[in-house]
From TrEMBL:
Belongs to the HypE family. Signal peptide: none annotated. GO terms for biological process: protein maturation. Residues 38-146 form the PurM-like N-terminal domain. Residues 160-311 form the PurM-like C-terminal domain. This is Carbamoyl phosphate phosphatase, hydrogenase 3 maturation protein. It comes from Pseudodesulfovibrio profundus. PANTHER family: CARBAMOYL DEHYDRATASE HYPE (PTHR30303:SF0), HYDROGENASE ISOENZYMES FORMATION PROTEIN HYPE (PTHR30303). Pfam families: AIRS, AIRS_C. Transmembrane segments: none annotated. CDD domains: HypE (cd02197).
Length: 334
């Protein structure tokens, strides 16, 4: 193969077949994908969760991952937030002519490793090559499906007054990492994306806890925006305690320098868990026993005081309203 992606690789001819066999099947291959049918034959049981997403992150490589691993993590997590076991993923690559083949191989390899670690199979895919300048290096679209095991399935409109609000770990890591890498910023302390597949931990939660009302990953728009979406859908108020929010000192410092609020920065390896107060201790024990939830903590509770609002209690005892993000704080974050 050439050392760069050529338009010929998207033609459907011999060059396309070489790209598929030498690269994609080499890192993503399995019994179903290797059949190279136009569609995958799947066996699912009962209720199914399905999610689709597109990944256009810039830069495509960053501390803690790349666009390939991120695509798997993002889709696996979205399916798992429905109280489901992710089973299968499809992926479509849109490649810019001239993309270095070494870069593409690193991305495909990372995607295959991420899928293996998450326990999902990539069962179908597509590749398109567009002329130079028609797309920025590489875009990836993924769709994931899984078996729902929670009954009822967690939902963004199921939060209730009296529920506790838990977060699985520190916030703002991914957003600050992408911004710093994109702009070539050198922070005093190392920052790294939290991109990770959360499905194994989430499956434990829904299997071992008697009741979970909401599971949600605070990606674009960050924690504040995600909680606003939940409070509006559920017609409740979320009261957060600022001192309880887990934020790494390096993220706090970077945000202070850049004038950013970590509450609105994207996360790619954290989740919110909203459930009855009586199950908090059990939930935190499960979360903290996993490396991806070692910093889990309670950050607030749901009330009926101001439905549809998110209120933050400051260290001085004052309160301020956290609105949904206005505009795009940081485009192409995922």
């Amino acid at each position: 193969m050439s050392d760069k992606v050529l338009l010929d690789y998207g033609s459907g001819g011999r060059a396309s077949q070489r790209l598929i066999s030498d690269l994609f099947l080499n890192y993503l291959g399995n019994d179903e994908l290797n059949r190279l049918n136009d569609a995958a034959e799947l066996t699912m049981s009962g209720r199914v969760a399905m999610s689709t997403d597109s990944f256009v992150v810039d830069p495509i490589f960053f501390p803690g991952g790349n666009i390939g691993s991120l695509a798997v993590h993002g889709t696996v997590n979205d399916v798992a937030m429905m109280g489901a076991i992710p089973r299968h993923i499809t992926c479509a690559y849109i490649l810019e002519e001239g993309l270095p083949m070494d870069d593409l191989e690193k991305i495909v390899k990372a995607m295959g490793q991420a899928a293996e670690n998450a326990g999902v199979t990539i069962v179908s895919g597509d590749t398109k090559v567009v002329p130079k300048g028609a797309v920025d290096k590489i875009f990836i679209n993924t769709t994931g499906v899984g078996d729902i095991i929670a009954d009822p399935a967690p939902s963004g409109d199921a939060a209730r007054p009296g529920d506790a609000v838990l977060i699985s770990g520190t916030i703002g890591d991914h957003g600050l990492t992408i911004l710093g890498t994109r702009e070539g910023l050198d922070f005093e302390a190392k920052v790294e994306s939290d991109s990770a597949a959360l499905n194994h931990l989430l499956v434990r939660l829904v299997q071992e806890l008697p009741e979970v009302h909401v599971l949600r990953d605070p990606t674009r728009g960050g924690l504040a925006t995600t909680l606003n979406e939940i409070t509006v859908s559920s017609n409740v108020c979320c009261e957060l305690v600022e001192n309880s929010l887990p934020i790494r000192p390096e993220v706090k410092g970077g945000c202070s320098i850049l004038g950013l609020d970590p509450l609105y920065l994207a996360n790619e390896g954290k989740f919110l868990c909203i459930l009855p107060e009586e199950y908090v201790e059990q939930a935190l024990e499960i979360m903290q026993s996993d490396p991806l939830g070692k910093n889990a903590c309670q950050i607030g509770r749901m009330t009926d005081a101001n439905p549809g609002k998110v209120v933050l209690e400051t260290p001085l005892g004052g309160k301020r309203l956290l609105n949904m993000l206005e505009g795009e704080q940081l485009p192409r974050i995922c």
